[in-house]
What we know:
Elements: E1 7-11, E2 18-26, H1 30-38, E3 48-53, E4 59-68, E5 79-86, H2 88-99, E6 104-106, H3 111-118, H4 124-135, H5 139-150, H6 152-177, H7 184-216, E7 218-224, H8 230-238, E8 256-262, E9 265-271, H9 281-294, E10 299-305, H10 310-323, E11 329-335, E12 354-356, H11 365-381, H12 393-416, H13 419-437, H14 443-450
Helix pairs in contact: 4-5, 6-7, 6-13, 7-12, 12-13
Amino acid sequence: MNFEDDTIVSKVTPEIQCNIGIIRISGSSASKASVKILRKIPLARYASYLPFFDMSGRILDYGIALWFPNPHSFTGEDVLELQGHGNPIIMDLLICNILSIPNIRLAKPGEFSERAFLNEKIDLVQAESIVDLINATSEQAVHAAVKSLQGVFSCHINRLIKKINNFRVMIETSINFSEDEVNVSYEQNIVSNIDKIIDLLENTYNMSTQGVILRKGIKVVICGHPNSGKSSLLNSLLCTNRAIVTDIPGTTRDVIYEHISINGLLFNLVDTAGLRLTNHVIERIGIEFAWKEINLADHILYVIDGSSNYDNQIETYINFIKTLSNNVSITVIFNKSDLQNFSVNTEHLNTKNYMCTSTKIGKGIKELRKHLYNTFKINNFFCNNENIFLARQRHINILLNVLNFLRTSKNNWTQHGNIELLAEDMLFCQNQLNNITGCHTSDQLLSDIFSKFCIGK
């Protein structure tokens, strides 16, 4: 797609005073902008040190100019980049001069990436990974975003689409060239093909869910009985006094959010109100908030005071396990191990995943941080680091919908043997997966995605 009469310009660097300021122009009039600002068109794909002129023809700045003629540019259009000093006044004067050229306007958020997508320089997954790379909050997230930008995720999706398409072609060929009933061996071949697609889809779905967690961080909710040391545990993991700690049960009534990085892996810590029956209105609201966070957790640190009577705490824990709405993993923390009357009783907890800590003297905190990292390093993320890519919730939703649809389609085939319906099912799955990479995507979805990009991207 070309935008022959529509050229865009924008600052690429932030709206602050800094050492370097970059302006990007993309479109058919980029060459006119080059002549007006630089008095020439620089040598293609070479860095040229040139004066930048203002509207009066005076030299305004000196900097690097980069010229990328179409189609060999990020957007697929003529692109000019000006790299000068990052004084906002200088940059605004240069942009005013550029905007004085007919058919050049300010770019909308994400419009450069949108043009790259529309001109088939990148697919939609790669476009989204640009934002993920900018917003990555850990080293692993950076590497995973680069994998998506390089097209690793897209390759998985395209492989699925190709497999479904080949299967659909085989099915439709049988419809067009044979009116005989489908024999047993042919039926088994169809089921085998569906199973192979389901296996491949499950693998992609599992890697994608890992990528979503990696992009957002791993949500670890700290909960348990009041006054068991939950807020103290948060403070110890953060190595700072973030939460108020007192001997009064029920001190924490709101939800406290903090982040820590353990060996480059981001953990979103959530401290919550103590779980108990209470008539205090504010504390009850805090407990309701706690349950909302618990039901969204990737991992739970359930804190028990190992120095006090276990009866109430054990009863609370057992009820807690029964009430959980998901299969989230749990680590039980026996806290206050520095006290003489400390003991560990796991008889009624039905778990071997527990640790002992003392938030007062810092005992076990280092081991807990290592435990959290190893739990997700081994189980979720780094079994095969080369295949980890970032994914978004919309990708997960599509993959899960297609997976469930395929399972239903397989059942319908085995029960009814309707070959025409099966072909329609495969076409539906193929079109749904195309929405991930953007082959069949609504204008509204594109608008929603690119509007969340930064100006200049």
